[in-house]
Write a structure and sequence with these properties.
Layout: H1 3-18, H2 28-34, E1 36-38, E2 40-41, H3 55-59, E3 67-70, E4 81-87, E5 91-99, E6 122-128, E7 136-141, E8 147-153, E9 158-160, E10 168-174, E11 177-185, E12 196-207, E13 212-215, E14 232-238, E15 247-259, E16 265-277, E17 282-290, H4 316-319, E18 373-383, E19 386-395, E20 404-415, E21 419-430, E22 435-447, E23 451-461, E24 474-483, E25 487-496, E26 512-521, E27 532-546, E28 551-564, E29 569-581, E30 585-588, E31 593-595, E32 598-610, E33 617-628, E34 631-644, E35 648-661, E36 664-680, E37 683-692, E38 697-709, E39 712-723, E40 729-739, E41 742-743
């Protein structure tokens, strides 16, 4: 599709949008004040079976009248939802009737713990237990009783989906729709000591076949359930206490392995994790002989950039409460590039310019090899207006790395209506003279509901020998974003000194100044609203200069995103780029292909598409083509996914890069196949198989998980890597692990 045709399509969309009728009128502040629900103390025992047949349920007031925020903002939900709340000395009970005129059409996509909420029908809860309009706990379930839970901080700026709570849910489907009966122990939550509790609360219902989200306390389309400043009120909780919530979770494991390089043999190990509710707002964790053998393998990537690849953290201990350590990144950028999100293959992915505390640096070497962890402790939570995070971990020594201690301290204070200021201190002490420290401060402000301003500054402290040369050891960032139902606007400026050395973070490049801005506008034309949801044209500009003053990289973007009512969509665009190399760029070390120094100007054209991902069979794809440095690049991606009866989810994706440069030509293929099967809501099997021609290896990761009691697991894990050329074994490991959680 040519740029002229894209412009004509955009113009037509604008004309249709101009004639669109306004959405349903809702005064959200008034609605927030009116949405009040009283919890009723249960006179008898509540059996969590999904039936809601105890007499106490009939005495509880009903929360109803849900309002859409998407696709028809402000209009009543297409299906009625009724919610009741009971409590006793130990638990908060939530009873749900999600009425549906066509129960056979209720879509359940997964049974797994922490299921994908967007892929099927579900019901969600947020509890603002301190009633501060900022933070909360989130719980979700679907019609088959799958569970999802998370901690939410600063109205969704940080969401910790790896928080695991003790709670129960049972569901059943009838001719009226589907029922859910939920029990959340008070000891799972943190809240104040007042004899009568008043909490913020909101409920969300998703009807996936209509791609519809509705809320009890209505929300504008640009917000989701995390917007607890617009939540309703739950009152009437008398004489409840959070409890100490002491959890002791030991593990035992046995493993065996083989390698083409060294003998591995068999091994056995044990360790323990302890969690203690120090106060109503603070949690203290301890870990001894920490093990992560059950964690899923990383998805492989093909690197066409000059920078290190980013692999996300997947280890539970570091993921839980990790949001408290987030620093200086504000609300992030609002949209990403179409082809690869990396700006023609030389920009680091957005949001990864300067992650000052990156927990994957702990327990893993630079080459990705595991470093044993002796133990550690972590204190996280809230104390009045302050959020606190304290972490210290002791690594054992290996043949390639000395023993080291890594510590992080984060303190943040709430200011104004929904803003905060904070500090971050990092320290790494290794055997020998080497040490690394960082200190920084940041601020995040929100004004007028839609405007966000943020700023951050930090400095590292390292021995002169660690970072030779001259220059600054500091970094600074200022940014602003504005987002309402029409406009998405973002800009930020980042400066990183030549000697900025953060050994506990992820900073792809130093000695640069970067300006980035993006501007988008959303259209929802009424004339085609039966099948078309939104057009989102947006443009962006990125410029990176070396601190010496000369240009390093520049990128201009012009994109058009189209979204349809069933969840399918497409994006297309062009990205003119400039790259100024001052030294050779080795783009493929194995083949010895390097791009010589010089100034390069080239453009990338792309189109992406995706079908309805909740359908039994769905597809997605991407095509990139254009110049690339002194040659050309063509990239293709095609994927398909299968969903069967809420139990089987399987997907396979192939991506190919065809690179033609003056120094040589080559092709890379990466095939990723993933299979997930849920036998029930407590037994699952997962498989991840990858084929990478660039790394010249096959890799397999198979995991079987049984939740044999709450927060207690049995894992069977098999990992193997083979050479794609010879088929020979690179390494293999089998691990059997059991955890057993005891709560007091």
């Amino acid at each position: 599709m040519t740029i002229r045709r894209v412009a004509c399509l955009l113009w037509a969309v604008c004309l249709c949008d101009a004639a669109a009728a306004p959405a349903g009128q809702v005064d959200y502040e008034t609605a927030r004040l009116e949405r009040r629900l009283t919890a009723v103390r249960a006179a008898g025992a509540i059996v969590v079976d999904g039936a809601l047949d105890e007499p106490d349920w009939s005495r509880a007031p009903i929360a109803a009248g849900f309002i859409q925020n998407d696709p028809r903002e402000g209009e009543p939900a297409s299906e009625e939802t009724e919610v009741r709340v009971l409590y006793d000395a130990d638990n908060l009970y939530v009873g749900v009737l999600a009425r549906d005129r066509d129960p056979a059409a209720i879509l359940t996509s997964e049974l797994a713990k922490d299921f994908n909420r967007q892929s099927g029908d579900d019901f969600e809860i947020v509890l603002d237990t301190f009633h501060d309009g900022r933070n909360g706990y989130m719980f979700a379930t679907n019609a088959r009783g799958a569970r999802w839970d998370a901690q939410m901080i600063n109205e969704g700026r940080e969401i910790n989906e790896n928080w695991d709570a003790l709670w129960q849910v049972r569901t059943r489907t009838t001719q009226d729709g589907w029922y859910a009966e939920i029990a959340i122990p008070f000891r799972t939550l943190r809240f104040g000591s007042a004899p009568t509790q008043t909490w913020g609360v909101n409920f969300q219902r998703r009807v996936r076949r209509r791609n519809e989200d509705s809320f009890w306390a209505p929300l504008p389309r640009i917000y989701d359930l995390t917007r607890v400043s617009l939540a309703g009120t739950l009152e009437g909780l008398d004489g409840v206490r959070p409890g100490n919530d002491l959890r002791i979770k030991p593990y035992v494991l046995g493993s065996s392995g083989a390698s083409s390089v060294v003998a591995i043999g068999t091994d056995a190990d044990a360790g323990v994790d302890v969690k203690f509710g120090l106060t109503s707002g603070l949690t203290w964790d301890f870990t001894v002989n920490t093990d992560f053998s059950q964690v899923e393998a990383d998805e492989q990537q093909v690197n066409l950039t000059r920078f290190s690849l980013f692999f996300p953290e997947k280890r539970d201990f570091f993921l839980e409460n990790s949001g408290v350590f987030q620093f200086g990144q504000g609300a992030g950028l609002l949209f990403t590039g179409g082809g690869t999100g990396t700006g023609g293959g030389f920009f680091p992915p957005r949001g990864q310019d300067a992650i000052l505390f990156f927990s994957r640096r702990i327990g893993l070497s630079a080459g990705g090899e595991s470093i044993p962890i002796l133990g550690g402790t972590r204190l996280t939570g809230r104390a009045g207006e302050y959020s606190v995070g304290l972490l210290t971990i002791q690594q054992r020594s290996t043949r390639s790395s000395p023993a080291a201690n890594v510590s992080a301290f984060r303190l943040r204070r709430n200011v104004l209506a929904n803003s905060d200021i904070g500090v971050l201190v990092l320290n790494k002490e290794a055997d020998g003279p080497a040490s690394n420290r960082l200190a920084g401060a940041d601020a995040n402000f929100r004004f007028f509901e839609y405007l966000n301003l943020n700023a951050a500054a930090a400095r590292t402290f390292s021995p002169a020998a660690a970072v030779p040369g001259d220059g600054s050891e500091s970094m600074g960032r200022v940014g602003a974003s504005y987002r309402d139902t029409r406009w998405d606007l973002t800009a930020f400026y980042l400066r990183i000194g030549e000697r900025f050395n953060d050994e506990m973070g992820f900073v792809p490049r130093i000695g640069i100044s970067k300006f980035e801005s993006q501007y988008g506008v959303r259209f929802r034309p009424r004339a085609v609203s039966r099948w078309f949801r939104e057009a989102f044209p947006h443009v962006g500009y990125m410029n990176v200069d070396r601190l010496g003053g000369d240009l390093q990289s520049r990128l201009v973007q012009a994109h058009l995103s189209l979204n349809f009512q069933d969840g399918s969509g497409s994006e297309m665009g062009v990205e003119p780029a400039t790259e100024n190399l001052v030294e050779p760029f080795v783009i493929n070390r194995r083949r010895g292909i390097a791009i010589p120094p010089g100034r390069y100007e080239f453009s990338d054209y792309f189109i992406t598409w995706r079908t309805n991902s909740s359908a039994p069979l769905s597809f997605n794809g991407r095509v990139d083509t254009g110049e690339f440095y002194d040659g050309y690049k063509q990239s293709y991606l095609f994927g398909t996914a299968v969903r069967l009866k809420g139990r089987l989810n399987a997907a396979i994706t192939e991506s190919r890069n065809q690179i033609r440069l003056r120094a040589g030509a080559y092709t890379t293929d990466l095939i990723t196949a993933r299979v997930e099967y849920g036998f029930s809501t407590v037994a699952f099997v997962n498989a991840l198989v990858q084929y990478n021609t660039d790394a010249r290896e096959w890799s397999s990761n198979l995991r079987f998980n049984i939740i044999h009691r709450p927060l207690s697991d049995i894992y069977l894990v098999f990992n193997e890597r083979r050479d794609t050329g010879t088929g020979g074994l690179i390494d293999r490991a089998f691990v059997a692990k059991m955890t057993y959680m005891v709560a007091f």
